[in-house]
Amino acid sequence: MSTLSSGRCRRSSEMPTRIFFTCDLHGSERCFRKFVDASNRYKANVLMINGDITGKAIVPILPTSKGQYVADFLGDTEKAKNDTELADLEKRIANVGYYPVVIPESELREVRASFERQRELFSKLVLERVQNWVDIAEKKLAREDVKCFIMPGNDDMWEVDDIISASTVIVNPSERVVDLDADHEMISLGYVNPTPWKTPRESSEEDLWKRIAQLASKIRAMDRAVFNFHTPPFNSRLDSAPKLDQKLRPVPSLAGILTAPAGSTAVRKAVEHYQPMIGLFGHIHESGGEANIGRTLCLNPGSEYSTGLLRGFVIDLERGGAVRHFRVEA
Amino acid sequence: MTQEKTLFVRAASGLVREMSTLSSSVYNVACALGGSAGNQIATPAVLPAFVIFGVTSYSLGMGIATVAFIPFCLIYFALVACMPRTGGDYTFTTRITSPILGWIEAWTLVFACLALVGYVLWLSGLAVASTFLTFWVTTGDQVWFAASQLVVSKTGLVAIGLIILVFIFAQNFISSGTYYRIFGYVGLVSAVLTCLMIVPLFAGDAASYASGFERFTGMSPSSVIALAQENGMMIGTFEWMSLITIVSMAVFTYIGFQYSIYLAGELKGNVKRNAMISVFVGLLAAALVNVVLVNVVLVRYGYELNMAWSSLFWFAPQSAPFGGAQPWMMLMTAMARPDLGILSSLASVGTLILLVLLGSGWTVLVSRIIFAWSMDRVVPKWFAEVNARTNSPLRLMVLSSVGVFVYFILALFGANPSSLFWYIILLAAPSVIMPGFNAILLPKRRPDLYELAPSSVRRTILGVPAISILGAIWLIFIVVVYGVAFVWPVMNAGVSSAAEWVVYSTSTGIVHVIVIAIVGIAIWVASREYNKRKGIDVDAIFRTVPPE
Same structural domain for residues A41 and A12? Predict the structure, then answer.
């Protein structure tokens, strides 16, 4: 029986393992804090992020000659008159997943002109936030009976792995078999099939298949296995993304933006071939939902990180192999 | 400096969707005006009638409603700026105000939509008959006249309704993406065709119309007016209560102008600007038709005659021109200027297609609302299973089609059409009232989302969030409107005994609404109990996790 006492989640061996599963937080501080708190709110004893934890954009905050600060944020010009307002602005920027940086105009000009300087700045800000998140998780989860899995995804630079690996409470499950409980094993893969953006963790379909086959060969009981792959199966309704033209712009029509399946054929083949109990996916923010491929329940929470809304699934794994799940939007 | 401080991005996947402002605006216009350009001329006859300073009571009421809808628009774009996701009112209310209220709101809205589409099927049959009459006026070929008489019979209306229902159902056999593209393109072409009626409208006048009317209907305008008066038509003078009653009608007439909000997941980017423009374009288009066009047609072609025809159509169809045909704008322009009948005919076809698209689009909307319930475990997951080939929830579409058919049969054989009209408005009440509560409560109930909204959404007036003030303004307006439209008539119905109340409430649809609401509550309670027994914590589905 599950009890909730002093913020700690205790669970007897008869109780199902409860997973809170989410993905694609993309740097949203608000979403991450909700994620860490999900163990209490949903009584979950496994917390899981399925990739893409880092943000995509920097918001420069320029000091003005009057001792104030100004920034373009979400289409508005935001002003901060003092340090308190500056801290509030920085917090709001971080909550939507962007990186605020107070930077003089002259220096910003230099950064804009140099790809290398931009990369350095991104790297610094991204890694600082990941380290901060690890610190938050360690503080909140250290004394709880909770397993926390955070897998980097295709958008996450490789240095992120080192920070997660150094954590005492977070486990990076990438490319290995981990035990969710005594009955259920999980294999994970943050790589995705090639995207137009040439992100850090992309691989050919052939290579994806090889990696998955190698991991799957280590699973003891496939009918109770969990596949935790960042990219969803091809044409599974969990992978409908905007169709892009050659300039990477969405193709519009009078009836809206055209969409096309963007998942992996290797992942589809793997799910069809191995038929695990559950497939957990992310990557395609617009295509949250659930689908069945054979006997495998496939879930993609989708993502609306920039609004501060944390989308996820609560999944109960019963000892006998049964699964219950429901979608949440925290 | 302005350019320097803009954000810069790194190469990363997960492109944000960007439905253009043009696309979302076209969608709103289509949803708000599907078919109404043709048959809206009939609506004023079910409402208090008067003319003041050359403006008809209908257009005056619709004009006031247009202004009143401005805070409603602002509420929607603020809500969507905070929660830019597909699902519309069900999502907002369940996540901001109360899950059960969100459920009841969506539950009643679904029945309102089904009833509306059933009503549209009935109207479509009449529109086909009117289009055939327009062809007859244009060509002089008696085949079209005979065809119209065939269609306007009960058998004909059932046949046309079923054909359109089959068409609506057939959309399940193409993919969702293809369906939306067809909807968009056909909708645009139809709208352009509909606009062709402007030419004969302004080429004709009251004299040419009266002459054409007598020639083609075989009835003199004065006899039609006399017949309508015998059947209760009354053109009165200005009264505030009458005006508010008309304003209440706008709540129903304008519905759909904000539907890009239901596609908010595609409006990301500068969602505030995109949502604001598309919703206001939808509202403007609805106002142009209901305030301007209807007024022009009514006044230019003779207010009393048109009101008489509309009144006979509703209340004494056996005495109405052409054996019960509706006053169809394109038929009227064709009678006024038969030489320009080809333009009226093309416009009539365009409007007819728009009417069918309206029924089709709203059926899809119903299936998507139920889909959202299923995802939230309020109804069994069985409903939400999506057909692998078409990417649409096929079972839901079948159920929706059956629901539409039931209401269609009711419109034909059971309920008085004007009573059904009121009943639909009553069912839709929660969906226009709850946005007010959502707006008031948003800053307090969802600070995690409100704080991240654009600064214009977070504006305060004397320390009070502007969104909450807008919510209060809208609530005051809409509660007064519904009070006048529904509470006032009940209080003045002269009902004194329980038996009289049963008869009154049954004939006006009030019992229907109460039964539907009670069934909705029962389903909610049963669903919670069922999920609890299965070990699913339904409360957790709607629970917000505090971020700090």
Answer: yes
Interface of A with B in 231-260 (CB under 8 A): 237, 240-242, 244, 248, 250, 252-259
Please name which of B17, B188, B26 lies closest in space to residue B86, comparing C-alpha atoms.
B17
Q: pLDDT (tens digit, 0 to 9) for every residue of chain A, 330 residues total? A: 333 333 334 455 567 899 999 999 999 999 999 999 988 888 899 999 999 999 988 999 999 988 899 998 876 788 899 999 999 999 999 999 999 999 999 999 998 889 899 899 999 999 999 999 999 999 999 877 899 999 999 999 999 999 999 999 999 999 999 999 989 999 999 999 998 888 999 999 999 999 999 999 999 999 999 999 999 999 887 887 777 776 666 665 544 456 678 899 999 999 999 999 999 999 998 788 888 899 999 999 988 888 888 999 999 998 777 788 888 888
- B188 touching A, CB under 8 A? yes
Query: What does the angle CA A110 – CA A111 – CA A117 come to, to the nearest 5 degrees?
Result: 120
Q: How far is it, in rounded angstroms, from Cα A207 to Cα A217? A: 15
Q: How many CA atoms lie within 13 A of A127 on its CB side?
A: 14
ipTM: 0.71
- How would you class B106 by CB atoms within 10 Å of its CB: exposed for 0-12, middle for 13-18, buried for 19 or more? buried
Give the phi and the psi of residue B181 in degrees, each rounded to 5. Answer: -65, -45
Q: Is residue B542 part of a domain?
A: no
The number of distinct structural domains making up chain A is 2
Is the CB of A215 inside 8 Å of chain B's CB atoms?
no
Q: What is the mean pLDDT of chain B?
A: 80
Contacts of A306 in chain B (CB under 8 A): 16, 268, 452
Show Cβ contacts of residue A215 under 8 Å, excluding neighbours closer than 6 positions: A175, A176, A177, A187, A189
Q: Do B270 and A75 touch (CB under 8 A)?
A: yes
Give chain A positions within 8 Å (CB) of B455: 76, 78
Tell me whether B458 touches chain A (CB under 8 Å).
no
Identify from A74, A81, A297, A298 which residue to disrupt to test chain B contact, counting B C-beta atoms within 10 A and taking the largest count.
A74
Q: Which of A67, A82, A113 is the last residue of a domain?
A: A113
The dihedral through the CA atoms of B491, B493, B498, B502 has a sign that is negative
Q: Which helix (H) or strand (E) holds A325?
A: strand A323-329
Structural domain boundaries, residue A66: 58-113
- Six-digit token string for B383: 């409903």
CA distance A270 to chain B (A): 19
A118's CB contacts (< 8 A; 6+ apart) are A111, A112, B8, B10
- Residue for token pair 């009711």: B410
Question: Could you tell me if B512 lies within 8 Å of chain A, comparing CB atoms?
Answer: no
Q: Who contacts B85 (Cβ-Cβ below 8 Å, separation ≥6)?
A: A304, A307, A309, B91, B264, B265
Please report which helix (H) or strand (E) contains residue B347, including its range: helix B341-375
Same domain, A50 and A62: no
Identify which of A48, A64, A56 has the alpha carbon closest to the alpha carbon of residue A28.
A56
Tell me what percent of chain B is helix, strand and coil, each rounded to the nearest 5. Answer: 75, 0, 20
Residue A42's CATH number = 3.60.21.10
Could you tell me if B456 and B521 lie in one domain?
no
Tell me which residue range forms the domain holding B446: 21-489
B499 inside 8 A of chain A by CB? no
Query: Where do we find the tokens 């039931």?
Result: B406
Number of other CB atoms surrounding residue B199 within 10 Å: 15
Q: What are phi and psi of A49, to 5 degrees?
A: -115, 130
B236 contacts B49 by C-beta, under 8 angstroms:
yes
A140: contact with B, CB 8 A cutoff: no
Interface touch A34/B547, C-beta < 8 Å: yes
Interface A–B counts its CB contacts (< 8 A) at 196
Q: Which residue has the tokens 């193709």?
A: A251
